[in-house]
Amino acid sequence: MHRQHIIDIGHRLIGAVQDSNCWNHRVSGVWVVMNPAAGLLARHGVVRQVLAQLVRAGAPYGSLDAAQECGRVARLDLTRYPGHGWELGRAIGSYVHQLEKQAPADPVEPEDGGCGSGESNGSGDGACGPEDGGRQPGESSDFGCRSEAAPLLVVTVGGDGTHEEVLSGLLDSGCSAAGFRILRLPMGSGNDAADVPGMNHALGVLRGEAQESTVPAVETVLAGGERIYAFNVASFGLDACVVEWTNRLKRSWLLPGDTYKLIADLVSLFYTPSFKQGLVKLLIDGSEEIERDIVLLAIGATGHRVYGRGKQVLPGEENLCAIRNLGILKRLPLKGMFYRGEHVQHPNTMMRRASSVRIEYPGRIYFQADGESRVLQPEDFPVQVRVLPTAVVHVGPRDSGDADSR
Fold first, then answer.
1. C-alpha of 195 from chain center
2. Which domains does the chain have, with CATH numbers?
3. Are 169 and 93 in contact (CB under 8 A)?
4. CA 400 to CA 195: how far, in whole Å?
5. 85 in helix, strand or coil?
6. How far apart are CA 320 and CA 317, in angstroms?
7. pLDDT bucket at 108, cuts 50 / 70 / 90
8. Coil, helix or strand for 308?
9. Using H for helix, E for strand and C for coil, what is the string for 93-152?
10. pLDDT of 14 over the 60 cut
């Protein structure tokens, strides 16, 4: 029953689009990706409340068949395992790429590749990098009627990790940013990258009461060529260690409630990268060289970034924060300083504005991108990080201002 309620939410999100002028004039279709394991979607009470909210707001039950009959796509996918969101993003990108090659009057069927949720299936492939869709960073426009081919509306429902996976798959697919619009709904344990604060705002956007603006990204390229995208913050070291342990512990049924968060914070107090083989070397914007015992390195798509349950890691215009190694006793007050954004005044903190960073390190180190964590090995270095100012275009409430100033 819980899974069916999640599916019902997805159908009513589709129905909100189909019941509006947006369906007739502004989008070529709507593709919803939901992560049933995301923090809020995993809670039965929350799911029932959200579904009741959609029903009260008059969001009809969307029809996938009716969309197909009129030459549009309406699809719903539920992710089933880690990385599935990326696969679905590639599938969506492949479909968008097909649309771009077809005449507007020619309907295009999404490819079926067996990576769907049971509601629908899809897979995709591609090789090229993202395009900026012709907008300048932060430029907004009404989400209105267009003379050119209408874009596909992609709705992701989950936490920051879900949004990051789907968007990364879209960028990896090689489709043009002009071919789709993204709307990220906050239903995870971490919701720093969401485009709307809640379901009421989401319904307004889905019904066309929205504006568009560009979304920048942080692209991290490992030595082997793998690309990883973050649309809020990518970080190395201490902070990524907290994310890694948080992700591990919150899957444990032995820990009640939010106990895992406390344990993850305690583990981080004892984390220190090994500098026996060498220090961290940074080359910022191809000119500034730095070699230090860096315990935390965070790079945001822009400045003014918040993550990790309210930490103001990048409180100003600078989008790079590097902190030198500290002992356990000195780390304790630093945690509180992060929430207030006061760590920028700490003598061991370095802040910069950077568009590219080359990172060299001879050891293993934790890494995270929008809440998705892993451990980088020595062979993954050197790592190239760069900011893509106009990676994708998102839709948000008309009165929300620039989403990148979150």
1. 10
2. 2-218+390-405 (3.40.50.10330), 233-369 (2.60.200.40)
3. yes
4. 9
5. helix
6. 9
7. low
8. coil
9. HHHHHHHHHCCCCCCCCCCCCCCCCCCCCCCCCCCCCCCCCCCCCCCEEECCCCCCCCCE
10. yes
Do 298 and 239 touch, CB atoms closer than 8 A? yes
Task: Give the C-alpha separation, 399 to 5, whole Å.
Answer: 31
User: CB under 8 Å to 367, separation ≥6 — which residues?
Assistant: 220, 228, 234, 235, 236, 240, 373, 374, 375, 376
Question: Residue 13 has which token pair?
Answer: 């999100």
pLDDT in tens, 360-403: 999 999 999 988 889 999 999 999 999 999 889 999 888 644 44
Rg (CA), the chain: 21
**Which pTM value belongs to this model?**
0.78
Over residues 269-316, the pLDDT tens digits come to 677 777 777 899 999 999 999 999 999 999 999 999 988 767 889 999
- Is residue 295 within 8 Å of 325, Cβ to Cβ? yes
